[in-house]
Amino acid sequence: MKKMMWGMVFFAVCLSTAGFAGSGPARRREPVVPRVRFAGDRFAAQASAIFAETLKDMHGKLEYGDDPRFGAGFFHTSTDTLGRPNYYRQMWARDCGRGVMELARFGFAGDAKMVARYFLAHINLTDHWGREIHRPYIPHNAAELDGNAWILSAICSAWRVNGRDEALGREFCDGILPVVGWVDSLIRVSPCGGLLPSISELSGNPSVKYPVYSLFGNYGMGVALEMVAEMAEASGERDLAGRVRLMRAAMEKALRSLVSDGRISYAPKGCWFNGFDGRTGSAYDLSDWDGTAWPIWHWTRQLPFIQDYDAGRSRIGGEFGKVHRESYLLLRHWMAEGAYFRKYGFVSNSGWTGMGGRHDETMCGYGQGFFTQAALMADDVNTYSKCLEGIARLGYDGGVIEQMSHERNPFLMNECFSYENYETGLDHTFGTHKNGRREIMENPGDEGNLVQEAEIIKAFALVVGVSCEDGRLVVMPRLPWLWDTMECRDLPVADKHGVIRRINLTFRHERWLGRCTLTIGGAEGFDALDVRFGPFPRMTENPCGFALEQSDNCSWIWLRGQKNTTKELSVETPFL
User: Fold this and answer.
1) What is the DSSP string of 409-457?
2) Is residue 372 part of a domain?
């Protein structure tokens, strides 16, 4: 009897594992799943589990047409129906756009293509997408500029990892023509020199009727148009490519008006400010959100350059590089104002000025994810080390004894958090206790909320730091000071032709030996191999034959132009 029971348990475990790829005709082939492991301290171990479980949970939100209630490509915003609040059976534009970009980045090419086609079949506001693409227009379902930008970027990302196929590119170009026309029409009538209007969480005005000509959405649309132009040109749609490049140039010029001169906005001179008020044309520095207001000239949406990573740029730079860096330093100053950041690495959306009791103050993606990505792209090791510690703490519920909200998995990121609860050992995904009752609106949970967990996956992608640039395989991990090992198995990297290559590597930083080593397999499909070793202390001496690069608080050592058959590279810093 016992043998039979054990056999049943073994069968159930196997079925559960295979279920990651799903059941039914559309899911017979299990995808190749990338594996990433960090080591060095307890936060590295927690981060490894969070990455694995979050990627699996994100992928599990896909529908393949087996359920008659959903078409193939439907992408749930919540994981299941039991949590509160809940967005299961809903497709939110921004969430699904980011989700598809991360699926593409981590090699789920067929799934990304499937959802891209679902997007194109459900342009639900005639010539663009609403906030929620699963239903037609209603007053709440206004157009979010950032949501439309991210869906366009997601469609282009799906094309990039599916062989950069010309036929697929033409299909996608034809499908997005109405949306391109919508963006073009708004540029032409813009009262702000080409900036586009938005009613959105990421503009600071999601619950009002007037638009804001905001930074984050306009910058993101510029990135999306750049990606559209690339896809159109490669697919033979040269007229579309030229049209889109002109649109992007107009938007880039208009973005200069959102750099503070120290007079029109509360933001310091040389930093980004949030945008222009659609009613008055003045700087929109204070939010108008469900009856409350707070300063948004120093919130995490003032770091728009994190969207450059979607186009393949992993560092601060470009025309607005100085503005980006000054804005990042301003946000870093405000984060350091918070005791929870200094103690635990927890990020505040609003720089600890508060949102009038709303739960959005502590969102995992828009706060923790955004600022972590910015610190990584700035190569600010001290700060990103602290931010990754915060991610590891927030995603791991092992210290919670009594759950107050619905929990499925101790390693998944929730939509929002209560930092006060964390400090007292209570369920930190639930509302703060006040006067003997739970304040659910202060911090609702929604375990596995799609955009929040996808932003964390994106942050881990920056930590891994493996990409193809101009045909070369570039390996530039951004490990915190106390993480000494990163191991990757079946890590997908699309080459210059859009063919996914699988990389296996181990990156070790043995500080006690003064040595940094990369062991790698699978680089043969690329033209050459470039490796950045580090981080090293700022005062590091450069070994002979290497290129030294310095950030504000550390140094890195480059070894470029290595043969694609190289299996191991190492650098040792001089002792004397």
Assistant:
1) -TTPPBS---HHHHHHTS-TTSPEEETTEEEGGGS---BT-HHHHHHHH
2) yes
Euclidean distance between the first and final Cα of the chain, in Å? 69
Of 459, 479, 507, which residue constitutes the final position of a domain? 459
Give every CB contact of residue 200 below 8 A, 6+ residues apart in sequence.
Answer: 94, 131, 144, 145, 146, 147, 206, 212, 214, 217
Collapsed DSSP state (helix, strand, coil) of residue 111? helix
Q: Are residues 489 and 433 in the same domain?
A: no
Give the Cα separation of 90 and 104 in Å (integer): 21
CB neighbour list of residue 172: distance below 8 Å, 6 or more residues apart: 116, 120, 155, 156, 158, 159, 231, 235
Please count the structural domains in the chain: 3
Q: Which domain does 387 fall in, by range?
A: 36-74+336-459
The 10 Å CB-count burial string (b at 16+, else e) for 517-547 is bbebebbebbebbbbbbbbbeeebebeeeee
- What is the average pLDDT across 179-189? 97
Q: Which residues contact 159 (CB under 8 A, 6 or more apart)?
A: 116, 165, 168, 169, 172, 231, 498
Pairing of strands 515-521, 500-510: antiparallel
- Rounded CA-CA distance 449/454 in Å is 9
Classify residue 313: in a domain, yes or no: no
My answer on whether 429 and 524 are in the same domain is: no
Q: d(Cα 449, Cα 457) in Å, to the nearest integer? A: 12
* pLDDT value of residue 312: 97
Domain check: are 427 and 508 in the same one?
Answer: no
For tokens 């439907």, the residue is: 74
- The first and second tokens of residue 501, run together, are 């290559």
pLDDT of amino acid 402: 75
- 403 contacts 427 by C-beta, under 8 angstroms: yes
Quick one: DSSP state of residue 165?
Answer: -
Res 31 pLDDT > 50: yes
How much of the chain, in percent, has pLDDT values that exceed 90?
A: 77
51-68, pLDDT tens digit by residue?
999 999 999 999 999 999
Residue 80: what pLDDT? 86
Same domain, 448 and 502: no
**Among the ranges 251-260, 283-292, 346-355, which has the highest mean pLDDT value?**
251-260
The alpha carbon dihedral of 153, 358, 136, 71 has a sign of positive
**512 inside domain:** yes
123 inside domain: no
Two tokens at 543?
């070994």
pLDDT (0 to 100) of residue 28: 46
Bridge partners, 275 (sequence order) = 214
pLDDT at 17: 34
